[in-house]
Structures
1.
Amino acid sequence: MTTVKAYAAEQADKPMAPFNLDRREPGASDVEIEILYCGVCHSDIHTARNEWGGTMYPVVPGHEIVGKVSRVGASVTHHKVGDTVGVGCFVDSCGHCGNCKDDLEQYCENGHSQTYNSFLQDKKTIAYGGYSTHIVVTEKFVLKISDKLPLEAVAPLLCAGITTYSPLKHWNVKKGDKVAVVGLGGLGHMAVKIAASMGADVTVLSRSPGKAKDASELGAHHFELTTGKENMKKMAGSFNLIIDTVSAKHDYNEYLALLKTNGVMVLLGVPPEPETVHAASLIFGRRSLVGSLVGGIKETQEMLDYCAEHNIVSDVEVINIDQINEAFERTIQGDVHYRFVIDMASLKN
Amino acid sequence: MTTVKAYAAEQADKPMAPFNLDRREPGASDVEIEILYCGVCHSDIHTARNEWGGTMYPVVPGHEIVGKVSRVGASVTHHKVGDTVGVGCFVDSCGHCGNCKDDLEQYCENGHSQTYNSFLQDKKTIAYGGYSTHIVVTEKFVLKISDKLPLEAVAPLLCAGITTYSPLKHWNVKKGDKVAVVGLGGLGHMAVKIAASMGADVTVLSRSPGKAKDASELGAHHFELTTGKENMKKMAGSFNLIIDTVSAKHDYNEYLALLKTNGVMVLLGVPPEPETVHAASLIFGRRSLVGSLVGGIKETQEMLDYCAEHNIVSDVEVINIDQINEAFERTIQGDVHYRFVIDMASLKN
């Protein structure tokens, strides 16, 4: 075991605070990573505060991890010391179920191991996340990161990037497709950038007129308010795909009406209560309401390579680790453009 | 104009009764059909009783029509006098929108003309349906029917058949796929027959143990009760596709949980109130909740040819027109195996 510095929540109502964490010694297939940057995802807050239930304390959040390989196990072949690498939302899976064999580890039928607040595949060791100086991960779940882009801005690609890239690819967005993005936060701003890079005609749908300028700067071609009935009516039947990143209460039917025939609305957020759906909203126009969860390891590597090729990164605000509690509050208030990223040097020193 | 015998509802609370109907003389592109059989769809009842609102009285229901061509207009090339033909849920569409050009007239962007209780494309003439001795329809919307199968049992293919065939084709059901059919009525029994003919492994999901024998006779490979929590749990993650024909209240989330990763649940029924959907029911497993509305003319012809080739017809109970009010009541009670079909000879004589 190696003891490393970390930040943890020890109880739901306690702030994040310094914590010493034991990391396993790298096994034969393991990669030890010195973490340089870790993004702050809203899931980190939900988990730290036990808002979804089931948090195992102490919890060390963080699943948007970028760093350098510091040690490798004897049989590791894909990574070597000094390589720039990343770790996303999960660190292992069973490897033998149908979904794992199809490179869909995020849907592992035997339960994948999430990067934190989750059991490793021995079903008893708890995983601790990226708010720490080092992490040890089995090599298959370590991604290669290009040095071409600023690493602090690459970190959020490991969750926000793949979560939006995967459905855009899976539902086959192509040049000229009309794509709407609902909600312009951590996920939404990545959806805009990636959809635009694929040649789609991108519209940001928002309740806040103040987001129009940002939407344009991020690469959206149009900005429309969702607050007026007339405006929503005007957009009826307009979009091939809607990426819905909103986890607050909202009426799915209003957005389904904006889809063209055969259009698809992808849910990425989970509202606090189930929403209602009229069967007629789907039947007239053969529309689809679907969900998508991050992406598999193969697809995450593909996304990282794609973003390096297309110069796509997240818009980030870099913080020191001792600003994390303030960053949580500002994230909850939507007061971030568009992702906080922790500079892990601030934890080491 | 030609005056023909029909049965109509003159008010929401009046029984169906004899009615004289003026049919237009066949124009250059029109086909006049002597109706032999017309199926009784639950939509006929909803419309006759104004249960969906918007019924224009008097209404002559019926959109599962099979008959013989009795006259054709001067420019009709696809049909000739004496041909066996059919008419389904719609009789015209704009013909020039994107969906019409894509053979998806059911989603015509300018509004298709349904077979009854709908305006023709002049947007003022009301359409009257198949509970009558004759109907006049523009040739493109007249389907060719093989004489190989019993015509009374072919009639329901024009609505129940295409409504189930279309999603099974669109979502690409193939040999070995696990397909569940929820609800074993007019639609459900056709879904079982067609899915089984495509090589799928078919399970009927029902609340009624009494349907097990029928399910098996219709070609289902399995029958499962949806009433027990344990039984539902056992089936979690089992199906590639669920065809949900139920229009009564039911919990979509319970059925979504039965889908495999990438599974699709197709709604064909419209419950009286919108149902709730948990985003998580879709996100975990990248599942889809979709809707589908009948099928286009090209696909309806394909379905009729497919059914003729595979010896697929509806299970029907043939009635005389003067039994229609009793048939409505029995349909509401689910007391029909599985479709009433009116022998139109009973109206002529």
Note: The first helix of chain B runs from residue 42 to 48.
2.
Amino acid sequence: MSETNSIINTGLRGVTVASTKISHVDSDASKLIYRGYLITDLAKNTTYEELVHLLLFEKLPSQAQLKILSQRLASERAIPETLIAALKTRPKTALPMDVLQAAIAMLANHDPDAAKLTKDNTEDIAVKLVAKIPTIVAAWDRIRNGMEPVPPDTNLNHAANFLYMLTGEKPEDQTARDFDICLVLHAEHSFNASTFAAREVASTRAHMYAAVSAAVGSLSGELHGGANSRVMEMLITIDSIDAIENYVNHALDSGGLIMGLGHAVYKNGDPRALILAPMSKQLGERIHNTKWYELSTVLEEKTKAAFKARKGIDIYPNVDFYSASVYYSMGIPIDLFTPVFAISRIAGWTAHVIEEQFAGAAPKPALYRPSSAYVGDYCGPDECAFVPMDQR
Amino acid sequence: MSETNSIINTGLRGVTVASTKISHVDSDASKLIYRGYLITDLAKNTTYEELVHLLLFEKLPSQAQLKILSQRLASERAIPETLIAALKTRPKTALPMDVLQAAIAMLANHDPDAAKLTKDNTEDIAVKLVAKIPTIVAAWDRIRNGMEPVPPDTNLNHAANFLYMLTGEKPEDQTARDFDICLVLHAEHSFNASTFAAREVASTRAHMYAAVSAAVGSLSGELHGGANSRVMEMLITIDSIDAIENYVNHALDSGGLIMGLGHAVYKNGDPRALILAPMSKQLGERIHNTKWYELSTVLEEKTKAAFKARKGIDIYPNVDFYSASVYYSMGIPIDLFTPVFAISRIAGWTAHVIEEQFAGAAPKPALYRPSSAYVGDYCGPDECAFVPMDQR
């Protein structure tokens, strides 16, 4: 394919594709709102289970509603034995996001109602996917390390159970709560690429599993879900506070960026980072290793100062910057950071699929079918006359 | 989620999201152009292998180039034994499109270079996917019917080999050529929903497998890929020419449509249908069963007349209308019609992923990140004050 300047691709920046009641990213005020509520309030006060209720069913649950949803989620955590058998056929080097994308599509095979496109059934599948995705991620990590998957423990809440299935050990209460908050913080972020992929697939009246599998594929791209893994790899590369100044200057001299600092959306800082930074600090203190927090905080300072000095602009950490040291300190393998993102974001994806397929007055959604501009100039402005094989 | 009129969703109709050199759908002139060439010329004169060269490498191949590509495709047809083992774990009731979506994501597990985002490597993966998708579809059909997959035969061309793997018998030459033409006709159609899904996922710098798996998910929706299956189901329901008049009147009285007649894009008829109609006739004559062709042609006439009489508009058959009877007459199971669509469209999807990731002057594509309008009114125009659990 010839390199050409004539291909344009705006990435739909600034194009409003739909209205939504699910979330609002207020980039000027640095506010993130899930169904009316500020993320700062939700992170402080709710569990992930409560948040799932809010996103899927539009309301913070009453105590009774929360109990019902929590029990449903716990009872749906197990994945079919034959799905585990399928995972065991996979090469141990398989990328966890690829395995997850496939496993979610395979979950449909076990659901006789997969393609039943009613709102109730689609909500049921949403609950199943929220429940089962952590089990798939943990099972794959065990299998690739030559161990049997740890069955879910219905006595643990959603966050604690994932860490338990991953490590085989019940996490400390505060660590489980920290992870719970991380799940709340990453659960939803409007029409980002993976959510848009889910809605796009759902718009054809494909089922929830197909849409969510596609979203996982979109999240697997390094421009989308890979950022906090790369923050951690960067911290490991830098390794010592003494090396930071040089690292920052070198990156900026060569026109690069510092991963996790700056956000395409929030102009005045990401509200989620303000919650994650102290969490990283306290978590480091509890495990007696504050190295990654300290590196992060000095890197943030030095990068901020360098951007201010060189370009006169203020930059801030985004959600990926401190979640890197948080997940690493919890013992989560770096290449599971993006699957962990999916474990949280499934709440947003499923809420968006439900909205795409069932909200509004129209009985059916309008299939996404954008236009493109044909700029093929293979035979000038005209069509090509067909050239028989012997004349090519 | 409350029903509301405030959710709008335009489906991106009329929004130009990118320029492309791959294909042009000229809706007024009823022309479909692949890289400069008219579909009518290509269907008459080229094989699917030639077409893959045109779509992926921008040129109709010379004899030498075609030989090289054909050999590469043939040598890449086999799928890993452990992927077949994974397919054997699947419930036999699994929907073929769900199995295909998962299997394509799993193919990445076997490719150590899956995530190597160079143009050469991405083109290599495109060739592998074109080669392997028919093998997956045929293998799954054999497995669900309790049979062993038929290994690909490198002495057969792409089209003939698929029919051979599906049935275990080498097809007649004319049937193989008819299927070859069907593959040419369905290979590409600009920014339809599945292609857009592939491009959307690729825009995050996810790899080709992730993007194509997502496209399969999008195609699985009944508004997109399911149409020719439903045409066939309709023909089977109608069953006799005598029943057509009533069927058409009943459908139109109740505000319905006749599947396969009318196209959202072509105003004056789909050029592909003009090739498929005589193919359906001749294929029926060869197998001594013209029933489905005859039903189709009378249904077309009666529906045309009814639309003209009632609404004063001309409608035409689209690509799905006669491909239904063609595939059915070839012995392809109805629920494989959409996977067969994927077997062809993989050429277009992969060409679009390559264009999305590597065309143009910019080193990286712009991630698709559209905007949305937040219309949440949970607490009026203001944010909600957080309500503690005991007050809900």
Note: The domain at 23-223+336-363 of chain B is CATH 1.10.580.10 (Citrate Synthase; domain 1).
